[in-house]
Amino acid sequence: MAKNDPKRGCEGDPAIGKVARMEGHMRASRYLLSLLLVTVVGTAIGWAQGHPAHVMQSVGEAQWGTAPPMLPPGAQIAVLSGDPGKPAPYTVRLKFPANYSIPAHSHPMDENVAVVSGALIMGMGTKLDKTAGTSLGVGGFALMPAGANHFAYTKQETTILLYGTGPVDFKYVNPSDDPRNKK
User: Fold this and answer.
1) Could you tell me if 109 and 159 lie in one domain?
2) Integer distance in angstroms from the first to the last C-alpha of the chain?
């Protein structure tokens, strides 16, 4: 074997090479342990500061209010957890009256929808089409990926759970459909 063969260690002495390799492994192990400790402590601090202990709420306990102006008038909202206006997880209930429509729009983040009562009809595309879409009844679920144009409408009063990571925003395909542009 060659004099500088790494398997043989320094100057051909296998014992010195083994010690050098062990020291390298110990340094790497200490580094990984330190990184793990910082991650665990940081996560625990973040969790303690930014998360409530728990949320348990029946449908009857919902505190309903007028939905934000990014939605057409008539919708109601009840915030269950988080703040949909901030870059963090949120969950809200939205209640839509019968014959309610949300024109084609997209969101900057994924949107998760679960139907609690009634039926929500949702479709993909750049224009509201009441002859198209999929009717999601109680227990139905939809995931609208960030940037995907979609629309929704109801035929009966409908309540959904909407959840994801904020901030929530609507980008209407046709700016004249945006209720914030109507004064």
Assistant:
1) yes
2) 86
